[in-house]
Amino acid sequence: MKIKPNPIEIPKEDPFKNDAINQKINVETFYKLIILTRDNLVYSIMGKWGSGKTIFLKMLSQLLLNNGYKVININAWENDFYDDPLPVLISEISENITTKKKLKEKIKNTGISLLKSSIPQFIKAITAGFIDINKPFEDLISTISGQIAKEFIDNYFKSKKSVNALKSIIYGDIALEEIKKDKNIFIIVDELDRCRPNFAIRFLELLKHIFNIKGVTFILAIDESQICESIKSVYGNKFDADGYLKRFFDVRYKLPNPDFNNFCKSLFKNIEIDDIFIDREKDPRNIYDKSLLINTIDFFSKIYKLSLRDVEQIIIRLGFIISTTTNDELIFPTVLSFYIVIRNHDYNFYKKIINNEISLELLIEYICKHLNAGELLFSSDNSIGLIFLSHITPIIDNDYKSIDSLIQKEGDGKLGHTYRKIKSDAQTYRSGRYFNNVTPYLYKKIDIIGEFDFKW
């Protein structure tokens, strides 16, 4: 077994070959949207940290390249050791937007002029709304205090001249070539939400106010809540961070939920958990363990609204436990998966369960009310919920008092029949070879591996 998963490769000939989260239709739909317009727009791909934004961008980038578009990929986080993102943008654009040496130098020299002319203060003034660079000079002067130094005014003109020069170079000398082909240039930015607050905000300001160039489209993947926190850290907690952020994006796209089941199967193969089950499945008692593990993780991923990185952590922990368990030791797949998930997300409730302080009735109430997942738990087309309850019943509620009281309470209704089915399955589970009242060895392994935190 491997601890660190291999990076997902995006083959040039088929960008979706390794699409483990079934995002192909979403990427293709987004692609069709962004090539429809010739406008210089800024798009945001919104999703929580670990929700699959990076793989989405990589597949999109390759799809654009395969269809003849010019694409520049920028990882903002890898460059936030710079005080200012301007040299990052200038360097990436100059190196990747053209193969002509003279144009590369022209862009770099213009960028140097921007840096020398106090462009940070210039952008801040524009962004705050104090200056409109499209206004006549006389109108502009009237908005500035009489105490403003001549240096600021000089720098304003130098900045405006450099900005216009940069736009002229990119649009007139470079983008024009692509425009003749009826194709925009796409600049894709990832990991901006992981950057230092000042760097992230300055990056957005540059895109909107300096690099809004005809024929150039920006696509950024961000966790909006994280970016809003960055904005508040700079401008104060009372600042309307969400409203401010919206000003930077012309089109916002919320990343759809990934296919967790397919992701689990892919990760089992990636970190070689599949190999562990080759020997385990020689014992007929273990033949369904792998599928039950995957289906239960998928089930609780939806209940707890987990990210792909959360699921990755869970599966790595599962791999450790299974790889250190002999083939004749039972792993109780549905229960084991649940314990690992709940230990990570509600440690106090987890301790109550393993200390036999929670009945089945309280567990069901917790899932239905606290997690608001009753419909998913008892869905007629989701058998994993019933399997989980029937497997966990004899472990946490050996005398069946709770389930009997639930049957009596619900009578002949739909839930009453469901509880009778759970009790019947649980009795079979308990009376067969699968039930083992001694599971502390699993608890101990879960607690040991739960102390590890894997970050990559």
What's the quick description here?
With 456 residues, the protein is of the alpha/beta class.
Could you please describe the fold and organization of this structure?
- With 456 residues, the chain is α/β, with parallel strands linked by helices.
- It folds into two domains: 24-254, 3-Layer(aba) Sandwich (Rossmann fold); 260-450, no CATH class.
- Helix content is 59%, strand content 6%.
- It has a five-stranded parallel sheet with strand order 2-3-4-1-5, sandwiched between helices.
- The longest helix is centred in the middle third of the chain and has 31 residues, at 150-180.
- The protein is elongated, with a radius of gyration of 28 Å.
- The model is unreliable at 118-131, 144-153 and 433-438 (pLDDT under 50).
Q: How is the largest sheet built, in terms of strand order?
A: 2-3-4-1-5
Question: Residue share in helices?
Answer: 55-70%
CATH architecture of the largest domain: 3-Layer(aba) Sandwich
**In terms of structural class, how would the helical and strand content be classed?**
alpha/beta
End-to-end gap: 17 Å
Main beta sheet: 5 strands, parallel
Mean pLDDT: 79
- The total number of structural domains is 2
Low-confidence stretches: 118-131, 144-153, 433-438
Quick one: CATH class of the largest domain? Answer: Alpha Beta
Radius of gyration: 28 Å
Task: Give the amount of beta strand, in percent.
Answer: 5-15%
What is the count of helical runs? 22
- The tally of strands reads 5
